[in-house]
Amino acid sequence: MLVVTSEEMRALDRYAIDIARIPSLDLMENAGRGVAERIIADYGPIAGKRVACFAGSGNNGGDGFVISRHLQHAGATVVCWYLAPRANLSPDAATNYDLLQRTHVTVRPVISDADILRIEGEFDIAIDAILGTGSQGPPRGLAAEMVTAINRLSVPVVACDAPTGIDVDNGIAYDPHVRADKTYALALPKPGLFAGSVRDAIGPIEIVPIGLTSEVLGQNQARRFVTTATEATTLLPQRSAAGHKGTFGKLLILAGSTGLTGASVLAAGGALRSGAGLVTVATAESVQPVIATKLLEGMPYALPEVRKRGVIALRALGEVRQLLHDRDGLVVGPGLGRHYETQELIRRTVSALDKPAVIDADGLYPFRDNLDYLTDCLAPLVLTPHDGELERLYDRPVPTEMLSRLELVREAATHLGVTLVLKGAPTIVGASDGSLWINPTGNDGLATGGTGDVLAGMIGTFLVQGLAPADAARLGVYAHGLAGDFAAEDFTRRGMVASDVVAALPDVWRSLETAAVARNR
Asked: Which side of the chain, N or C, has fewer Cβ within a 10 Å radius?
């Protein structure tokens, strides 16, 4: 699904109105009616419920007037406070204000602080339609007072398009901002809505179509998307009833060192639980017995090491290449350590690759001042750094603002000619052609050691099963986050660990496969 900035959304609206000749009042009606229908579906039955709507003077307020009208028509008792006077309303908002006056909705103007003090009553639902995506910096004046009034209500709060006080482009929560329990994003989601920094203020996001045609949507060329559940199901590699171990991919994982054996086991677990046919974990000779006791389904392989230091030696290069000859792809890095011989082994392995690979964690370190190894590599590469690793690799600070993060991922992926997975909240996938995908799944429970190793193994599996690098990364990231969500249900976000994510993967595949079957009926 396309993701647009607030300005890009306004440009699409202008094109829809001026070029595609879709009346602006129709767009507002579609938006308000759609949100009202979602509220009824999510919080209904609505008849008899008491609803408080807070409307601004712009088009977001106009959406609020339409929502109020439709909820009242469905049987709710609605009180709508709006930032008055009427003369300050946008033209479409004024038209819908006049329509609202003909209903039984109680409409109350907010002109002064005294009016704010009169915002009271017992309600079942509150609607924020004050500023939406029109927020520029923190709310001021009566709008800020209205935000405070909403936050005082002890009822579910839903936001129309975006909670007031949230920068929907960069994921900044200003003071004050509405703390919404759910956000109904109009037409298309905006990038900042997915930022972990504002997730508690936004709640689950639902997209409400407003009647924009494919012609209109096609005007946006930003190549910025969010991966949806439907898209994830279409990316799942097909499994043949006549398949065998070789059919489902043979993956080599170059990982592990003294004290870091768990990383290799977790990467193998992510790969195996994602359907890989055969997984070989190649590691330092003295470390191999430790991994063998933990790895029942994978195959541990001992490689020469550096003077009993528990790290892989450069002289293992020939064996690594021979192992790769009989495998379909490589995951390199989890728990490998940073000995200079191991780093040189990684560089030489990658420079000669003719099969897809995931480079993760310690596997990224050797390329800090040697980016040519990556840009010159002819094999498909997926890099999976977190912020610190990307800063070290690319020698650029990673910004916190969402739009700047997205553009840095785009720049690095295209410059290096790789698929780049920037792990975080949210995780961002950047393809070598400049396309970007924001991942909507996952939670802060994934912020614990080892979960990135699980992800590397998952992406590696999808590579050896034939998915293109960007598709393998998108599916891996989405399913990994969903496994984290399932694990949090069982173990809590505070209590979950990386092995819980591996254990939750069968539930993820069951969920996606069931959805795929239902979609194809």
From this structure: C
